[in-house]
Amino acid sequence: MKNALEKNGSRxxxxxxLAAAMIFGLAACAGGTADxxxxxxxxxxxxxxxxxxxxxxxxxxxxxxxxxxxxHYYITYYQGIPAENQSLERYREAVDAGFxxxxxxxxxxxxxxxxxxxxxxxxxxxxxRDDRLIDILYNDWETxxxxxxxxxxxxxxxxxxxxxxxxxxxxxxxxxxxxxxFPLLGALVELFRKYDPDRICYINIFPDYPDPSDEPGYYExxxxxxxxxxxxxxxxxxxxxxxxxxxxxxxxxxxxPADVGAYTxxxxxxxxxxxxxxxxxxxxxxxxxxxxxxxxxxxxEWGKSRYLVREEISFLAWQTLAYxxxxxxYFTYWTPSAxxxxxxxxxxxERTAHYYDVQxxxxxxxxIGERVAQTRSAxxxxxxxxxDREHVTFFPSQGYGEICAIGGGDYTVGFFEDGSFIIAxxxxxxxxxxxxxxxxxxxxxxxxxxxxxxxxxxxxxxxxGGGVYLRVADR
Length: 475
Known about the structure:
By secondary structure, the protein is α/β, with parallel strands linked by helices.
């Protein structure tokens, strides 16, 4: 799951281009007609860029989809509890941090079965990784399709071992496969659907990190090839763009939240471009194929990936949610190996400050995500200044639906088909006072009661890296 360029220098090149945000149902505010080529909010002196707005974003296809009755917002992680540390108490610890989809990625078959029983007891779902599948996908994988009977036998054996455990949600197959493995993955997904149609296969693909050898349109073709060949029930990718260029502190695990300020003092930050590129591309492809999607966001510290304070973690969660992502994963829960620091738990199993950071963020976004999972992303816009390298769609000057204008800061605004929308603060260092002009009454989601309540004034205080969840009343 680590940066693909660091993990695999021979990985297939992925492009650095953007498919413009597609939106649905653009309507006028105060009776006007929106011009689908207009954008707004560019910084002074920046050339106006027009982005055509197409009307096909929410059209469904005949692609396989996950169980339509299983519409939930799942929060999960990469690098789960090691076999030697597994216990009911350890799994409860993950649930207490706000996770409802736990990764079972180590131990014997019997240990993984026991972990599934613990997940059932705790009322959560689980994704299971199995070494027999790892062997197929990494050892002599080029020849596996030549022996379909052997492939079938392995899948049947794995399914027989885990199918009868109610907590099982997914079979975890592989991380960041090269596109040459897509036919083999497609065959495996088909076999799992045959023998256990109530579960999904989980595969995480490459992000769109730039590569000088990229050909124009490569990443769009990569996504399309994957979706057409593998036909997954869930589209997943990882993207880590929050870096450092200079630091004063030596890398170490921070277990006391009071020590975070001193540890991050003198840290010079750099945010690589491409985070919104990837969200735009994957959202577009997921909607086009009728599948939900998952984003694995940065959490641990390694290499040039910097220590994230709580506001930055919140920023990542809110931005993905505004884009309609319905599965969120953190990299990582347990520290995977030497060279990694500040996962949620250290290698010996002690909680770091990030455990409490993620716990707080999950408590806020979990109930909102559960409602987002019941609807569908309709449009995503940006408000305020934006680096012109990030070719996103700006909020139309004529408005969208009943919403006439949004101002006050730099925001990502995600609209959903049920009339709800998220305004996510793109500034993870400063809070913002957001104003909304609307032709209809609005309601705001109260996180304490988990209900929508009437808004008396369309002005909202957005914390650094935070957001607000609103809806048009009576929708």
